[in-house]
Amino acid sequence: MSFLYGELLQTLRTLLKRYISSEYNIDEEIKSEPEDEYESTEEDFLETGMEDLPKYINEVSAILDRSDAWRELAKRLHQDTLLNWYEKLPSPTSVLLAQVKDSHDNYSSRSLAMILNDMGEMEAANIIYRCLD
Questions:
Q1: Distance (Å, rounded) from C-alpha 132 to C-alpha 60?
Q2: CA atoms of 32 and 10, how far apart (whole Å)
Q3: Cβ(52)–Cβ(97) under 8 Å?
Q4: Is 41 in contact with 63 (CB distance < 8 Å)?
Q5: CB 106 within 8 A of CB 49
Q6: What is the predicted pLDDT for the residue at 10?
Q7: Does residue 119 contact residue 76 with C-beta atoms inside 8 Å?
Q8: Tell me, what CATH number does 74's domain have?
Q9: Do 22 and 62 have their domain in common?
Q10: 48 in a domain, yes or no?
Q11: Same domain flag for 58 and 21
Q12: pLDDT tens, 83-97?
């Protein structure tokens, strides 16, 4: 893609140079823009802040599923409109956490641990904190 862009840019420069030279009788070199030092990749847009989720999802899900604390977590993560759907699943917490990760919201593993800590779910929060170190 960048090759085509570069080729197109070069063609436009040549045409513009010819036009300006013939129109205004100028024979100056047209300066190009400097190249970007940083080339973004698709990975730059896929990071969510919950990359550590696979390390702790099973343990945290078991705790929150057992205590039904996933309901409060869903509310705090603004996913409570799906409570009826979550409760029909074998592990509501694991689906909830996977959805939050895939939604690209501004949640990180650290912020999730802080929410769980605030909910009084210290055991689940500590599991996440251990995975972050």
A1: 14
A2: 9
A3: no
A4: no
A5: yes
A6: 76
A7: yes
A8: 1.10.533.10
A9: no
A10: no
A11: no
A12: 999 999 999 999 999
Q: How many domains does the chain have?
A: 2
**71 contact partners, CB below 8 Å, separation of at least 6:** 80, 83, 86, 87
Length of the chain: 133
Q: Is residue 44 situated within a structural domain?
A: no
CA dihedral 18, 21, 24, 29 (to 10 degrees): 120
Structure tokens belonging to residue 49: 């802040």
CA-nearest of 90, 116, 86 to 99 is 86
Q: Is the pLDDT of residue 11 over 60?
A: yes
- The model carries a pTM of 0.64
For residues 63 and 115, state if they share a domain.
Answer: yes
61-70 confidence digits (pLDDT tens): 999 999 999 9
Please state the φ and ψ torsions of residue 55, each to the nearest 5 degrees: -70, -30
> Which pair of structure tokens corresponds to residue 7?
């080729």
Instruction: Name the pLDDT band for 15 (thresholds 50, 70, 90).
Output: confident
CA–CA separation, 91 vs 64, rounded Å?
9
Whether residues 25 and 67 fall in one domain: no
Domain that holds residue 111: 53-132
In a domain, 32, yes or no: yes
